[in-house]
Amino acid sequence: MVSGNFVRIKPKQFYLKRVKIDRFLSREGICSRSESEKFGSQGSIKINGTVVHDVTKRFDPTEDIIELLKGSTQNSLSDVLIIMNKPKGFISQVMTSKLKPANTLLRQENYASYINGKPAILNDVIKQRSKFYPLLTLEKEASGILALSNSKEWLRKVCNYEVVVNRTFEISLSGPLIKKDLMQMYKGVNIQGNFVKPKKMELLDSQLLIMNLETSYKNQIYSLVSKCGVKPKNIKCLKYEKMELGTLKPGQWFIVDDLKKATSKSWS
């Protein structure tokens, strides 16, 4: 039987139903599911004062009290936000496949230390890179700014607790557009039962479009420009809320250690 001080874990996420202990700990950024199994076998988890060994047991985070033995996660990271310039060919999702997840780029040689130096947690982030997930996905053939975190709480922090996220894309096209085509796209399209339309657009030239969107449905850009008989050749995300790509080279990343930096005009 493990003895020691237990610390209550107050949920940061919002839960509508009962959830498995291992999933809860993972979603809250406390530890991975495999690590939670170890904590369960060691008797390091309590629900309502009772030690629980089975981490697949469900509980209600809004009603039940979950506690973890103090010191169990001393090697775990607190909430961390990462900004990356995702190159083409990398997927933003984290999954088991032959494809290359963007979080595999979280390596020492790719770190942009010229932005804010090398924080003390850098090595811990690199060791635990598999725990970092995108706050919004960026498709495999797209490049540009991608925000990753080990806690979904950062999504609300960066976006001022709004569900809608504002992103700006630079899109090179397979053929020319005219202003009349922009009006057609402003009418929007239906994607998966949801009405999607650009917030703002600007033609830099006939085959280079800047598009501002507040949605993140898959293939939304493809669906919009195809209304005008053209296809996107290259898509680059230039801006995520107030965060701009700045001087980050493809594959480079850095840790945002201050919310003011996360909402500043740029990092260049």
Write up this protein.
By secondary structure, this protein is α+β, with helices and mostly antiparallel strands. The protein folds into 3 domains: 6-69, Structural Genomics Hypothetical 15.5 Kd Protein In mrcA-pckA Intergenic Region, Chain A (Roll), CATH 3.10.290.10; 81-163 and 248-262, Pseudouridine synthase I, catalytic domain, N-terminal subdomain (Alpha-Beta Plaits, 2-Layer Sandwich); 167-240, Alpha-L RNA-binding motif (Alpha-Beta Plaits), CATH 3.30.70. It is 19% helix and 28% strand. The protein has 8 helices and 19 strands. It has helices spanning 21-27, 33-41, 113-116, 122-127, 153-158, 179-186, 220-226, 259-262; strands spanning 6-8, 19-20, 45-47, 50-51, 58-59, 66-69, 81-86, 90-91, 100-101, 133-134, 142-149, 167-173, 189-191, 194-196, 200-205, 208-213, 232-240, 243-244, 253-256. Strands 7, 10, 11, 12, 15, 16, 17, 18 and 19 form a 9-stranded mixed β-sheet that branches. A 4-stranded antiparallel β-sheet has the order 1-6-3-4, with no helix packed on it. The chain has a two-stranded antiparallel sheet with strand order 2-5. A hairpin with a 7-residue loop joins strand 10 (133-134) and strand 11 (142-149). Helix 1 (21-27) crosses helix 2. The longest helix is centred in the N-terminal third of the chain and has 9 residues, at 33-41. The chain is elongated, with a radius of gyration of 21 Å. The chain starts with 5 loop residues before the first strand and ends in a 6-residue tail after the last helix. Mean pLDDT is 84; it is low at 263-268.
